[in-house]
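User: tokens in, sequence out, please.
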């Protein structure tokens, strides 16, 4: 869907539908709603007075204008109680509205933005509205051929602005579309089946990002990784016919000597579990085990499009985890890129093995911060559920920055401890570390393992095993790939820019 910001009055919009927002506890109509109500002979107040429309959160009612104004219909949208309004409610309401209009085969709509909804966060209101509308409309349809003509799609949303806020709203809409496009890109990568989203194809997608200004892409192949000694990553790749790739995206938005933020994303294009094979049920969902890598690629893409004045590195170790005849086996020991020896207890704990080498590589940039994002442990779903990101790390300030970004984006993050006692669980009897610490505190011991490969840099690990893939529709995340952490990372990066928000 394309979004346009236009000057004018909502009541004059010649649209298929005009979207108007209401609060549950709103006493009387104001602004365009009042004018439109008057022009249409009180149809809105009639609906409200008869309690056909109560403005409950995300409630949508459609009424026809009978030709009294240029627009054919009005969509009344509920925002719930005024005192309870927040960015998540705005995202949800706009997502539900757009989905509802799409189901009616409507192609185009007009709306206004009431910046007084949250007076302190004007920019965030615009962002939340556009995020809700765009993210809620996402559908992954390239593989549908039967009944393709029946697929409905919204084509256009016109945001009508009457007055001085025009350029402010226009620029916020622009920036948010950059972000939602990056989320679409990430969702597309994750939704693609693993036979068509191999490590090599992920690398090609990264090269596409490198066509943007100030972005370069380097891809290390198997030979190069062997030469460097990335044996932990290559060990995981042994059982697959697909060649592993180590994808490096470098975005230079600041002075050369400014320390970069390094984002590291797990790029397991398919995780069968390897020799410690997973049960068949839901194994198809393991095509999404590259969600962290895809989020990193999306975040770098958005940062470049927003021209953030930062240096940002994206590292994506990409491979399959397969039980081929050359596959690595429980008991195998690998000398990792760091030089530390890792004993493999369970070949299904492969994510931390590829991340170990990537985190070691990150040190080469002497980074200001390292953030890794991974669908790392089923234990994180047990601990926090399907909607929440697990956070562990060594730097309180960095964790604070992530928490702040999480609050703004609605991507929920909860911290878990990385206390010394947990490190016992990953000590190996005959090597330095083992790749599994057993079932107890599985998310924490996985992070403890990663910490052994992070140099002395501020570091945060985000476990997105829960929210990366959704088995049911959420308000602005249709079921399937969520693209979680793209908005979180972009918000974190934008907040990092010293000047005012860019
Ligand atoms: N990719 C999985 C984690 C996962 C599970 C993500 C379910 C999303 C949904 C990871 O590679 C894995 O298999 N982890 C194991 C670790 C264990 C063997 C120590 C797990 O969580 O069971
Ligand atoms: Mn696994
Ligand atoms: Zn995995």
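Assistant: Sequence out:
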């Amino acid at each position: 869907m394309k979004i346009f910001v236009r000057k004018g009055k909502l009541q004059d919009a010649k649209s298929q539908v005009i979207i108007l927002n209401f609060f549950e506890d709103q006493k009387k109509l104001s602004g365009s709603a009042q004018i439109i109500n008057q022009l249409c002979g009180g149809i809105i107040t009639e609906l409200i007075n008869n309690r056909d429309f109560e403005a409950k959160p995300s409630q949508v009612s459609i009424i026809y204008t009978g030709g009294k104004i240029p627009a054919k219909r009005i969509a009344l949208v509920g925002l719930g109680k005024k005192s309870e309004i927040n960015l998540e409610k705005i995202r949800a309401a706009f997502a539900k509205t757009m989905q509802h209009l799409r189901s009616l085969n409507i192609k185009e709509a007009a709306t206004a933005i009431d910046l007084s909804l949250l007076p302190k966060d004007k920019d965030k209101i615009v962002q939340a509205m556009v995020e809700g509308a765009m993210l809620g409309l996402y559908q992954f349809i390239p593989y549908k051929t039967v009944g393709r003509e029946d697929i409905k799609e919204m084509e256009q949303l016109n945001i009508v602005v009457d007055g001085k806020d025009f350029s402010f709203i226009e620029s916020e809409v622009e920036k948010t579309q950059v972000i939602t496009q990056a989320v679409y890109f990430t969702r597309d990568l994750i939704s693609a089946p693993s036979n068509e989203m191999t490590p090599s194809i992920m690398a090609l997608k990264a090269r596409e990002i490198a066509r943007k200004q100030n972005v370069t892409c380097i891809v290390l192949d198997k030979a190069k990784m062997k030469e460097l000694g990335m044996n932990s990553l290559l060990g995981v790749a042994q059982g697959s016919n697909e060649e592993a790739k180590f994808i490096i995206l470098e975005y230079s938005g600041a002075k050369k000597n400014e320390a970069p933020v390094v984002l590291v994303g797990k790029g397991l294009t398919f995780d069968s579990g390897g020799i410690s094979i997973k049960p068949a049920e839901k194994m198809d969902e393991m095509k999404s085990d590259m969600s962290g890598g895809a989020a990193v690629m999306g975040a770098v893409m958005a940062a470049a499009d927003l021209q953030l004045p930062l240096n940002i590195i994206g590292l994506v170790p990409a491979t399959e985890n397969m039980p081929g005849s050359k596959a690595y086996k429980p008991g195998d020991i690998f000398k990792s890129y760091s030089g530390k020896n890792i004993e493999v207890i369970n070949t299904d704990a492969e994510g931390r093995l590829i991340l170990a080498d990537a985190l070691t590589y990150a040190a080469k940039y002497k980074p200001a911060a390292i953030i890794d994002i991974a669908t790392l442990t089923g234990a994180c779903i047990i601990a926090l559920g399907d909607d929440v990101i697990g956070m562990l790390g060594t730097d309180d300030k960095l964790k604070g920055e992530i928490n702040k970004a999480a609050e703004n984006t609605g991507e929920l993050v909860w911290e878990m401890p990385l206390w010394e006692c947990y490190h016992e669980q990953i000590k190996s009897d005959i090597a330095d570390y083992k790749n599994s610490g057993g079932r107890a505190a599985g998310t924490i011991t996985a992070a403890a393992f990663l910490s052994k490969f992070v140099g002395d840099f501020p570091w945060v690990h985000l476990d997105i095993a829960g929210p990366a893939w959704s088995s049911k529709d959420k308000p602005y995340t249709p079921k399937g790939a969520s693209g979680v952490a793209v908005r979180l990372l972009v918000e974190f990066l934008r907040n990092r820019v010293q000047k005012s928000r860019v």
